[in-house]
Specification:
By secondary structure, this protein is an alpha+beta fold. Helices cover about 35% and strands about 20% of the residues. Strands 5-6-7 form a three-stranded antiparallel β-sheet, covered by helices on one side. A three-stranded antiparallel β-sheet has the order 8-9-10, with helices on both faces. Strands 1-2 form a two-stranded antiparallel ribbon. β9 and β10 form a beta hairpin.
């Protein structure tokens, strides 16, 4: 299991050269992502102030943002897109606390399959499949590829050795988990953030600035932010904003299957964003994955 906080700050020691092949692939995916919501048109964010210093385990920090991060989101558009609609149906299927065994009902398994069917019908995931076929990392049959995705993302495992199966890649990355009520694990998805914020479950504390930029813009589609959730603070968390679930699934799946090491970091440039994509492996499954906006510093 790799902790976001430790991995985040180690990225600067382990920075790799730009991966041109993956940058090209991911930009093609970006351009194909017709389901991506557009800033200023489909949603508006309210960045407010710069986040203060915080450490993992803090329960209270300076709040530099009195209002929500998401000023508005066009939910009608969101729910009219099949990949978003099927994705949203999965977000309430998990127990947030690690150490508490997860139980997958037949209905939830069916929802997982509906979601995979929806994303596999998109051009973004078709491109990911084609690329992985060329690398001999996926089978040509779509049903086999779907099974492979299910195993990577939805197969349950224990976060700690000896515990009951209490986690999976999807829950960690897209839904979020807590450890002993003192630490937020994962939660790198903008839709989950928006929905939790709407229910007043998440409190946005402010943005974390890039060194070469005094503050993010309201149309930035990758952000580093600080927030609290379920009584704990996430000192810094990076997330794509507006992108479709299939876009994130495609990126992280490709990196996961290309590498065999426990922690993989690939430096890529997607649009204007120079990112380090971090993927942590938990056996044959994803432990965590997220983008790190390079040049971000809690000091800068």
């Amino acid at each position: 299991m790799c902790l976001f906080f430790n991995v985040y700050f180690s990225t600067f020691r382990d920075r790799k050269a730009l991966n041109h092949e993956l940058s090209k692939l991911f930009n093609e995916m970006w351009d194909m992502d017709v389901n991506r919501l557009m800033p200023g048109k489909d949603y508006t964010i309210d960045l407010q102030g710069k986040a203060g210093a915080a450490q993992q385990g803090d329960s209270a920090v300076q709040d530099s943002a009195a209002r929500h991060l998401f000023h508005n989101v066009n939910e009608e558009r969101l729910k009219s897109i099949k990949t978003f609609a099927t994705f949203i149906s999965l977000l309430d299927n998990y127990e947030a606390s690690t150490g508490v065994a997860e139980v997958v009902t037949p209905e939830e398994r069916a929802e997982n399959n509906c979601f995979l069917d929806a994303i596999l019908a998109t051009e973004v995931m078709k491109l990911a499949h084609e690329y992985l076929l060329k690398k001999k990392l996926a089978k040509p049959n779509l049903a086999d590829f779907k099974y492979q995705l299910y195993d990577i993302w939805f197969q349950l495992y224990a976060r700690k050795e000896g515990d009951r199966p209490d986690s999976c890649g999807f829950e960690h990355v897209f839904v979020g988990e807590t450890r002993r009520g003192k630490q937020i694990l994962g939660l790198h998805n903008w839709v989950q953030f928006y929905l939790q914020e709407k229910r007043n479950q998440i409190d946005y504390k402010g943005y974390v600035a890039r060194k070469n930029k005094t503050r993010p813009d309201k149309d930035d589609q990758v952000l580093s932010i600080q927030f609290s959730w379920k009584g704990s603070v996430k000192p810094i968390g990076s997330t794509f904003i507006g992108v479709s679930p299939e876009f994130e699934f495609a990126l992280y799946t490709v990196i996961f299957l290309l590498a065999e090491e426990r922690v993989t970091r690939e430096t890529v440039k997607i649009e204007e964003y120079e990112l380090q994509m971090v993927v942590c492996r938990h056996g044959h499954h994803i432990g965590t994955s997220y983008p790190v906006l390079l040049g971000t510093s809690s000091e800068g």
